[in-house]
Amino acid sequence: xxxxxxxxxxxxxxxxxxxxxxxxxxxxxxxxxxxxxxxxxxxxxxxxxxxxxxxxxxxxxxxxxxxxxxxxxxxxxxxxxxxxxxxxxxxxxxxxxxxxxxxxxxxxxxxxxxxxxxxxxxxxxxxxxxxxxxxxxxxxxxxxxxxxxxxxxxxxxxxxxxxxxxxxxxxxxxxxxxxxxx
Length: 182
Known about the structure:
The chain is an alpha/beta fold. The chain has helices at 33-42, 54-57, 63-79, 113-122, 136-144, 175-181; strands at residues 5-8, 46-52, 86-90, 130-133, 148-152, 170-172. Helix 1 (33-42) links the parallel strand 1 (5-8) and strand 2 (46-52). The longest helix has 17 residues, at 63-79. The protein is globular, with a radius of gyration of 15 Å.
């Protein structure tokens, strides 16, 4: 029987985004993030991070360093008793300077490729799943994958309107409120 999942953007959803994180020491959990993940896991959801990482294509971070950054994220979450089921990332960007990563990709949000791959890999029912993120591209990816969506919409966020974008099902100021909505 397929399971349900919470798909989560990484930067400004789970961790603070100082702009192109390029070292594990920069990983800092946002308030309520770990507690929210524990609560969502207790509600029976798989927890899957789906994150655009154009810094790889831009030559700012290697895939090896990105793996260390994700290990640091998992370590910080584990200290709070929170566990992710998977992390999917898209290293591609059409203006990248690293040739093998310079391209369009179905996995790059707002495309739903990472969500669709995770659903296939992990037997996830997308219609009973949610996408939580702080940008319109996260919401559009979730909608394109047939998930319900929550936009983290604190006063510090500015959302660029794109004619292709879709409206979030719900808005929340942080992960704690997102859990209450779900």
